[in-house]
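Bug #77: duplicate submission created two jobs. Keeping one. Sequence:
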Amino acid sequence: MTPDHPRIRIDVHGNGGTSEECLEEIRKALLSSPRRLPTKYLYDDQGSALFEHICQLPEYYQTRTERQILAKSADEIVAHTRARELVELGSGAATKTRLLLNAMARANQLHRYIPFDVSEGIVRRVAQELIQEYESLEVYGVVGDFLTHLEHIPPGGRRLVAFLGGTIGNLQPEEAQAFLRSVHQEMAPGDFFLLGVQLITDTGRLEAAYNDRAGVTAAFNQNILRVMRAVAGADFHPEQFAHVARYNARQHRIEMSLRSLRDQDVRLTELDLTIHFARGEEILTEISTKYNRHHVEALLQSAGFVPVAWHTDPEHLHGLALARKP
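Kept job's structure:
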């Protein structure tokens, strides 16, 4: 734990280092069929900055739609939960979070914000920004992987735990269920959980959101190969892999991959491993599952939550499910 300011604490439990556990995870992913890389490695400091840019693109409707829903529903959510602390999993730049923090401040309920993210740089930046914006706010940042470090969320008072942006869709179905059960376990009875989900819509709109004309999503995707250079000593050449994103209608999800543009061998020195990539072979880097309300509420109930409210936009592109731990 490192103090940056009297009202800031940053607790670092891992940020994509070269531990044996991380290396073994990468080995298993690259040797699986089809080959893949863990999605969390998209979000180093550079990747997080690129994702911030993606969220501002005209094609990427998800972020602005969720922001519009929060703008309309934040006061109602805060009144319902009476939360004095906001925990945000996968917090990133916390841009939409201000809508909830503002509502908590208006209700005189704002005491502490706990951003949880894999990028240490962005957690520190957000903490410094927010203590300037909110006079008495305390920020307790947690740097780590929310799939494995949830137990490091500090204890506290009545709280709302938020998992926004449709990030739940990046998890395989069994991972999503296990994750929600873990979140439920770490919460106190009476606390609330706010889950943001991307909803099923037409294929053209979905695929355009992940294939922007400016190429920012492609750069974001290729950045994972640069992360592999740092983490695993890999001699990937990102320009030799093309960005691919397409909608899998059967599983209701976008699948984002990197396609090898030629036959090539990649050496990962930290793994003592050489992998041959055939031309056209792909590495799966991210999935983004889309849901409907029934599926979301069933998922929450299976983890032990009680759904209490549903907020969406007029076009039903995005949903916010509010649930309570009984």
